[in-house]
Design a protein that fits this description.
The complex is a heterodimer of chains A (365) and B (122). Chain A is α+β, with helices and mostly antiparallel strands and 365 residues long. Chain A has 16 helices and 8 strands. Chain B has helices spanning 8-18, 73-84, and strands spanning 2-3, 22-30, 34-43, 48-57, 62-64, 87-89. Classes of the chains: A alpha+beta (365), B alpha/beta (122).
């Protein structure tokens, strides 16, 4: 029997970037999907080999443009490890707070666009973006830029925090908590949303491990794996938080895990704010192209980014990386798409793709 | 942990038996006189990682696939094949992962000069 082959993308609003899907259809049942990537490949790893250590954060930020601070911090911390320099204690708290705010902003953007994908049109999108704008405003006041912050420096941040930062951060967590807790009232009571997500794109526990997916996609399949808990960095070991998981492994479970993660992030931010001294000293070293020489030991550094586990494998040279490998979480998460999209309806393909939360700039590198 | 390319599949199988059930990443490093393939595995029970390196002489760049043990290895191996020219045997590699690339130059090798050696696919 022959199937109908259609091309979706590379320019298509539901693919969230320049992703091309070649789909074999029987009626409107998906028989096979093949993701074609590489339209956004710019050779970041090669470029980073040709530049000094502190010239590179502007590349790492553009990997995941929805949550740039995560990659920025992971890279700068890898350089800190190579240079054997310590991060100021206050700056560690500040980084935790900013990273968790970034995670909330990223999950909010995902929630808004995902609801659009599954036909819960624009109410959730507007709400999520309303909250996200407030988070971005705070991050802008800290770093001077709304989206691409580049505010990590060796040993700390680019500059001191604004004077009223702690009070504003507390107020923002209260605001976020009260609003985010309203979301399930809208989504769980919405027949369209439930029907388009429950039981769609199931990924079992064994398959999730075998395919090596990470982040909320892995945790929605019932595996409690979170770098913040397993290999704690900064003061994550001192804060109390849960890792939300679900046994269902479907698109709804992925929404649920991300929703609960936002609430956990709020709790982490409050604890970190409570532990941080009143007038924190967070400023790191200004950018110098020629700095101290790096040790030749190989660096392996991992972080729980909003989309999953980011990893840097770096062979340091004296003033620039000899080789740097960036493990992007969504690269592996996208790989599982053909496997979980067999025999679904074409419309559900986008529910599944949306629930994986991909960012093409990070996949193609 | 260092291993040879002949023993790679066996080493991975043993580690998987020990509980290293999660493949973090596969990549390679070009040291100009030889290449080194790097496999990072993770034990989800014990929360520990294991790094396997395989030394590959420049005139014999070939590795067996481990995708029958770790399904997620396929794209990493294809990436390694296209970026470093390390041939992966035993896996389904009929299509280039990065389609616009010519498939004959290996951009992450040190001999490839960025901005000079780029040739478009013909």
């Amino acid at each position: 029997m022959s199937y109908m082959r259609i091309n979706i993308g590379p320019i298509h609003p539901s693919t969230h970037g320049v992703l091309r899907l070649v789909v074999d259809l029987d009626g409107d049942t998906v028989k096979n999907v093949e993701p074609h990537i590489g339209f956004l490949h710019r050779g970041v790893e090669k470029l980073m080999e040709t530049r000094m250590y502190m010239q590179n954060p502007s590349y790492t930020e553009k990997l995941d443009y929805v949550a740039p601070m995560g990659w920025d911090e992971l890279y700068v911390n890898s350089v800190e490890m190579a240079l054997n320099s310590k991060v100021k204690e206050d700056a560690q708290y500040a980084r935790m707070i900013l990273l968790e705010f970034q995670r909330i902003a990223s999950h909010l953007l995902w929630l808004g666009t995902f609801c659009n994908d599954v036909g819960q049109m624009f109410t959730m999108f507007m709400w999520a973006f309303r909250e996200r704008a407030k988070v971005l405003k705070l991050l802008e006041d800290v770093s001077g830029s709304r989206m691409f912050y580049v505010n990590m420096r060796i040993g700390g941040l680019m500059r001191q925090l604004p004077q009223d930062f702690i009070a504003r951060a507390y107020a923002l967590t209260d605001y976020l908590e009260s609003h985010i807790k309203e979301y399930p009232d809208v989504l769980d009571a919405n027949g369209i949303f439930i029907e388009r997500t429950k039981g769609i794109g199931k990924l079992s526990k064994e398959d999730a491990i075998n395919w090596g997916v990470s982040g909320p996609v892995l945790r929605a399949s019932g595996i409690e794996k979170d770098v913040r808990k397993d290999n704690p960095y900064y003061f994550y070991g001192k804060t109390k938080f849960n890792i939300p998981t679900s046994m269902q492994g479907d698109a709804y479970a992925r929404y649920r895990v991300r929703y609960l993660e936002m609430l956990e992030s709020i709790s982490i931010i409050r604890q970190a704010l409570g532990m941080m001294p009143e007038n924190p000293d967070v400023a790191g070293l200004p950018i110098k192209l020629i700095g101290p020489q790096a040790k030749p030991d190989i660096i392996i550094n991992r972080r729980e980014l909003p989309r999953g586990e980011g990893l840097i494998y770096m062979v340091p040279d004296k003033q620039k990386p000899y080789r740097i490998y960036l493990r992007s979480p969504t690269y592996t998460n996208l790989q599982v798409l053909p496997y979980i999209s067999k025999e679904v309806k074409l419309a559900d393909l986008f529910s599944i793709l949306g629930s994986l939360d991909i960012v093409m700039a990070e996949i193609d590198k | 942990m260092e291993t040879t390319k002949e023993a790679l599949v066996k080493t991975c199988a043993e580690l998987k038996q020990e509980g290293y059930d999660y493949l973090n990443a596969i990549t390679a490093v070009d040291y100009t006189d030889h290449l080194e393939a790097v496999y990072i595995l993770y034990n989800t029970e014990k929360k520990s990682e294991s790094v396997i390196t395989v030394m590959l002489p420049i005139n014999d760049l070939e590795l067996s696939t481990i995708s029958n043990m770790y399904a997620g290895a396929v794209w990493y191996e294809r990436e390694m094949q296209e970026m470093f020219g390390i041939k992966i045997t035993g896996a389904n590699q009929e299509r280039l992962l990065l389609e616009e690339w010519n498939g004959a130059d290996y951009p992450l090798r040190k001999e490839f000069i960025w901005g000079k050696d780029y040739k478009k696919k013909t």
